User: What shape does this take?
Amino acid sequence: MAKWGMVIDLETCTGCQACTTACAMENSRLPGENWQDVLFYSEGDYPHLNVSWLPRPCMQCENPSCVSVCPTKATFVDEGTGVVLVDWNKCIGCKYCMVACPYGVRFYMDEAPVVEPDVKAAFPGEGRRQVWNPPFRMPDEYADPSKGIGVQPKGVVSKCTFCHHKITQAPEGVADLDEDDPETREFTPACVRVCAPKARFFGDLDNPESNVNRLIADRGGVRLKEETGNRPKVYYLSGGGSPVVPGQRSKRRS
Amino acid sequence: MASITDFSGGHSGRETQWMLHFLISLTIVVVAGGYAVWQIMTLGHAAFNTTNAGIFWGLPIVLYDYFLLTSTGLVMVAAIYHVLGVEAFRPVAKRCLGLALAGLMGGVAVLFLELSNPLMALWATPLNLQTQSPLFWKILLVGAYTVLLAIVLFNSIKQPTVRPNPLVWPLALLALAITLVAGSVYGMMAMRPMWFGGEIPVVFLIESLVGALAFTMFFSHLAHGFRHNRMSDELRWLFEGPLARLFGALIVLHFLLHAGRAVTGWWSNAEGLQVWDHMLSGPLFYIGLGVCTLVPLVLMLLPATRSNGLAQVTSGLLVMIGLFIARYEFIIGGQQVPLFKGSWVQTQLIEYTPSMTEWALLGLGIGIANMVYGFAAWKLGGEDEA
Assistant: This one.
C-alpha cells in the first residue's frame, strides 16, 4: 500500500493560488475556507520589505494530533493511503480536532461566513444538513460522507483529503502521480495538477524509486513544526534552509 | 426578590423563598433560553461569534467548563464530610451536592446547544473507544458522574438528616478525575503554548475547589436570606473558621498559579505566548486577578471581615466572577494565535467578543442551574436546614 506524500518547492512556487482555486472547485469549498491555502507574510518596512508565502495543504500527518483527540474516531487515518479523513457520519462537531491541529487546516460548517457575500445563501441546499448546493459540486458518485468527501454538511468538520477520490483510482504500485504522465494525470490531486510553475509533486513516500523521495533526499526536504511530533507527509524544498515561515511575533500587519 | 424574603415564619417562609427562586430562574430560562434557541434554530452557529478564523471554542465552552468544574469542586467539598469525615462540613454537605447537580445541568444544557450532534456523542463516544482522547474520558466520566450524583441526591431526599454516604466515595473520585481530565483537554495541546503544560490539570483542580467554596459560601447565605444571624451556630462557625481558612488558602494558591503563569508568559518570547501581552494590556485580567482574587483574600485573612456575613457573601461572589474571567481568558486566549489558519486571517491575534446569543446562553445556564436548585430545595427537600 502506498504512503502518499507531497513535496512543495518554495523556490518555484509563485503564490498564484491556482492550487487554492482548483481545490475549491474540486472539493466544493466555501470562499475563504480553503483546504489548500497560500499564506502570505511580510516583514520589515518599505523599502526594506520581505514578502514571502507558504502554500499550506493539510500535512496528512503520520502521527496526527487531530486523530488522537477525536472522541468518536470520526477523524481517522485511512489504512490504504495513509490519508487523514473525517467520517461525517460520526462527527459530533466538538471541534477539538480544529483546536488540536497545529496547521489550521480544518473547517466547521455552520459558522458565519469568513468572506462576504455569503455564497451559501446564493446557492441554498436542500434538507436539514445540506447547507448549500454549489453549481460546481463534484459528481455524486465521487462523494463519500464516511470519508469527508463531497459538499460539507452542517455541523461537521472537514479537511483536505489529498483528493482521496482521485488517488485511490490510481494504478496499483505507481510511484508518483504526475500531471505530465498521461497514465496518472487523472488521479493526481487537483492542487498538484494545476500548479503552473510545477512546484508540487505527489508520490509514494514508501517507494524508494519515487520522485518525491528523490527530491526530499537531494534537496533537503523539511517539514513544518517538527517539534509537535505529528510527522507531516508534506515536505517543503526551500533551497537547503528551513521554510520561510516567520512567527506571528515577527510578522507585520499587511 | 427571593433572597430577601423573610422566612421568619419558619418552614412556609422557606418554601416561599424557594418557590420564588424557582419562578425567577424559570423566567430567566424562558427569556434567555428562548432567545438563544430561536437564534440557533434560525442562524445555526452563525449566531455565535466563533468562526473558522481560529476561535473555535467560544463562550459556550467557557460556560460549560465553568459549570462542570464548579460541580466537581462542590462534590469534593461535600466529600470532606462524607469521605474524610470532617464533621464541621456536615451543615453544607447536602447543599453542595444539590448545587453540584444544578450546576452540572446548566453546563450540560449549554454544551448541548453548542455541539452540532450532542446525542450522537452519547453512543459514538463509548462505542468507538478512542482512549487517546481526553474528551473520550471526559464524556464517559461525566456520564457516570451524572448518574451517580443523581442517585446520591435521590437517596438524600429520602433521608431527612445528613449522614455519611459511602456512594460519595466513588462520586468524589469521579469528580477528581473529571477535573484533572478537563485540565488535560487543554494541558495536552503542545501546539498551543498558552494552554500546554502539566500544571494545567492542577490549576483546574485548585480553581474547581476554590470555586466550590465560593459557591458554598454564597448560596448558604442566599438560603438564609443573606442574613448571617439566621444561620445555625455550626454553620456560622464553619464559615468563620475552617471553611474561611481553607477558602483563603486556596485563593492564595489560585493567585500564585495564575500570576506565575502570567508573569512567565509575559516575559517569554516564545511563539504563542504573546497572548499574555495582550491579556495583560486589558482591564479584564486585572479585574479577575486583582479585584476578584486579592480583595476576597484580604477579606478572608482579616478576622473582622472573615466573621462578617456581608464580607463572606462579597468574597464568594467576587471569586465566582474572577474564576469566570480566568476561565474565559484562558480558553479564548489559547486560540488567539492563528496557527497557519489561512491567507484571510491577516492578524497577529484573532479578536473575539461573544455574541448576544452566547451571552443569552450564559443566562440560560445560570437560569437552569438555579431552577434545578430552587426546585430541589422547594419540592424535594434538597437544602440543608443548617
